[in-house]
What does this fold into?
Amino acid sequence: MQILSVVLVLITVGCIVGPIGGVVLMYRDNLSGLVVTPQIKDIMNGNNNIQQDNSDNNYNNGVNNNNDNGNNGFITPTFVSSQINSAAKTFTVTVNVTNSFNYDLTLNSMNATVESSRDNYQLGTITLATPVTIIAGQTSLATVSGIWTQEAVNYVQNNFPGATSINVNLADISIDVNGIIVQQTEPVNVGDVPLT
It folds into this structure.
């Protein structure tokens, strides 16, 4: 009886380890392929074949869906408003976020560095205030908060005297969408941001 239970345990282990070992052997040269599917790699690389076709309709609900901001239409932000607390050196920015895919996305987190688009001087950092679900083909509001340093204040005062806004890029962007972390290596221009 004991021999039978040992044989059954070995069969059970073989049934579990065998297929897993076979898959690991198949992906031995690309172990990330076990977790990151080709479709996810296509999304991260901006493959437009899996996105909605917006070529004939560049405006959806009044929001520009042109993908000329360098992010290949993955998630298209459009500035809505901002609030600044000069004493605390903090700010919040609200943007419309357009989902150009055929399926819902949940934006769990976002971190980025804010830079002057003129010379890439680091002005501060931003993070997503709360997770946002964006329905396929629609737009949702997302709020990011951030901080800046006294050095950034000095930079703006010295390089943009009297300016009411400054053109900025987001760099070192890390976004968690549906549990998948995407890192953007190229800066994304977000346009002019008010200074007051």
About this structure: Confidence is low (pLDDT under 50) at residues 50-73.
